[in-house]
UniProtKB/TrEMBL annotation:
Residue stretches in coiled coil: none
GO MF annotations, alphabetized: thiosulfate-cyanide sulfurtransferase activity
Top-level division of the source organism's lineage: Archaea
UniProt protein name: Sulfurtransferase
Rhodanese domain ranges (all copies): 13-123, 153-257
Keyword hit for Repeat: yes
Listed PANTHER family: THIOSULFATE SULFURTRANSFERASE (PTHR43855:SF1)
InterPro entries, per the entry: Rhodanese-like_dom, Rhodanese-like_dom_sf, Thiosulfate_sulfurtransferase, Thiosulphate_STrfase_CS
Length: 258
């Protein structure tokens, strides 16, 4: 599944992987970026129709990745400058559009942490002229409104709200546990906390491999990071509610307010 890789791992493979920078274009051009990186700003792979933050559509996705010099056979590493939360959304989008999850990697840390030890550049990257072919994933973590509603009564399911505690208190799904996605990252290293700390945080809210895990937030950005972390830790059966609270509330799903 999708994994998290170190800066050293990426540095050794810059010529063999496709690197994607999802920061704003002005950051990519003005501040600098990883060598060989392609710029695919976050706003470009969100839907411009309907609910903000939803998937961009198969054709739009294929065009974006083609322009970035990526093929469906490439190993891809994504990064941002926000602990990986926007980059994780890129990777989960790729997963949902059929890219092999074993070829999807999140940089552990972000641009700022990379910049402490490794080279950056403001030079334009030379990108190959390719065509990205979207495929249909053999398996998908996506679940819809009805599946999540049914999961509320499943004693084996843990419904996980990855927003911050204040948002959680303002309204959440019945029975949901709150795991702010930022609890999984270290502010100093800007990457993930050590594995034992991650497992301790997860276990504290009953997120364990023997449970069915259903993730949601507002528009699926924050759950993308949590999904990647759980995938990296080897969790199976993690479900991804793309519609999240945006759809849940629009369809009058039950809400608990603290």
């Amino acid at each position: 599944m999708v994994d998290v890789v170190s800066a050293a791992w990426v540095s050794e493979r810059l010529g063999d992987v496709r690197v994607v920078d999802v920061r704003d274009e002005w950051e990519f051009d003005g501040i600098g970026h990883l060598p060989t990186a392609a710029s695919v700003p976050f706003d470009e792979f969100r839907s411009t129709e309907g609910d903000v933050g939803m998937l961009p559509g198969r054709d739009a996705w294929a065009e974006l990745l083609s322009d970035a010099g990526i093929t469906a056979d490439d190993d891809v590493v994504a990064y941002d400058d926000t602990h990986g939360v926007f980059a994780a959304r890129f990777l989960v989008t790729a997963l949902l559009y059929g890219h092999d999850p074993a070829k999807l990697h999140l940089l552990d840390g972000d641009f700022s942490s990379w910049n402490r030890e490794y080279e950056t550049t403001t030079d334009a990257s030379e990108l190959p002229d390719v065509t990205y072919e979207v495929t249909t994933a053999e398996e998908t973590p996506l679940v819809g409104f009805e599946a999540v509603e049914a999961a509320l009564d499943d004693p084996e399911a843990v419904i996980v709200d990855t927003r911050d505690p204040e948002e959680f208190d303002e309204g959440h799904l019945p029975g949901a546990v709150n795991l702010d996605w930022r609890e999984l990252v270290d502010d100093e290293t800007r990457g993930l906390k050590p594995r034992d700390e991650l497992e301790s945080v997860l276990e504290s809210v009953e997120i364990t491999p023997d449970h069915r895990i259903v993730l949601y937030c507002n528009t699926a950005r924050r759950i993308s990071h949590t999904y990647v972390v759980l995938s990296h830790l080897g969790y199976d059966g993690v479900e991804f509610y793309e519609g999240s609270l945006t759809e849940w509330e629009a369809r009058d799903g039950a809400i608990v307010r603290e």
